[in-house]
Amino acid sequence: MLEHLAAGLAGSAFVQALQEQVWAVALIQALHIVAIGLLLFPAAHATLALAGGRGEGAFPVGQALRWTWLAVALLVVTGVLTVLSDPERTLLNSLFQAKMVLLVVALAASWWIERRLEAAEHGSAPPRLVAALWLVLWLAIILCGRLIAYFGAPPAA
Description:
7 helices; transmembrane helix; membrane
């Protein structure tokens, strides 16, 4: 099924036009990397604050999580465009597939942590271990994304 989707996307006029614009692919990838930075800072800040570190201060965890959602939105847009720049190599890559599974888990964890923070006024903050695992999830997603270029690609036909 993924093979048909990848082949269909690869043959589309939009994807072919995107692939011809080397500067566009480079710009999209650069924006994706900037979005990773936008994600990591608030995720690390929130994790430190939730773990009892000195993260709260002038930048509350709730505000940090809003930046995380903004970064995720930018990552989704640039990620889709990155996939479209080479759908056959990306969609069929086992590391890309693992990254997508981890992404779903990380987004669910983000939502859960945000709900727990809203309830924290009543003494129900997320456990420290959950906060640390949340950051590890995001780091694993980034690692999978970087390794896609080097490993996990299907054999050349």
